[in-house]
Amino acid sequence: MRTLKRKLLGLVAPVLLLAAWDYVTRRELFSPQLLPPSEMLLETWWDMQTSGELALNMRVSLCRVAGGFALGAALGFALGTAMATCKAVDDYLGPLFNTVRQVPIVGWLPFLIVWLGIGELFKVAFISLGALIPMALKTYEGIKAVSPGFLELARVFEFGRFRQLTKIMLPSALPSLLIGLRLSLSEAWMLVVAAELVVASVGIGNTMTVARRLFQTDVVLVSVIAIAITGYLGNALLALLEARLLASRRPTCAQ
Known about the structure:
- This protein is mainly α.
- It has one domain (47-250): MetI-like (MetI-like fold, Orthogonal Bundle).
- It is 83% helix and 0% strand.
- It has twelve helices and no strands.
- It is globular, with a radius of gyration of 23 Å.
- 27% of the residues are buried.
């Protein structure tokens, strides 16, 4: 009952926003070119969907997100694990990592374009860099937060370093790792739009760029809504995975 009530409360803000939008557009307080009415957005979405334009651009963007997220999350996990488990690696790479992560990811755009050009490699590398940082940070924090008592128990049972990592550290750090995955995915989805806004011939970001130049605010808003829904669904899937994995650990912990 409480969960249902929370979900219903979560609908209040969107409903109020839609009602305000409908009121403003019907009263023509703004030009339809600046704030298109909901009917125009539905027509634009239907036209983009039936023509295949929306599906094509979303598919291209999702492929870029998938590649960049997978690469960045894997590298971030490896880097965070190495820094958390090896003092030498932490001493050498920790200061550099903490310095680099202070730079906004978009600040690397000019550098990456110069080095990698404007092709797919640039876009995947840009997305990967954004996904790497939160994953590395949450992996590092999760492993470092493992109880010293668990590690001492592992030494008593003469666990090797690899067994300590797989049997003690990573299971204990699982909540932090899952948060890192969600943050990395969110970052990847935002950065694909940024990369496509800068340079792309296809992709949802390119659709927004072309529509902005032609002053087609209805196309821009449909693209924004598609991005928001897709990002929300991706985060919801990871949240569901997180809940299932953490729930499966409880019986083991209780034993």
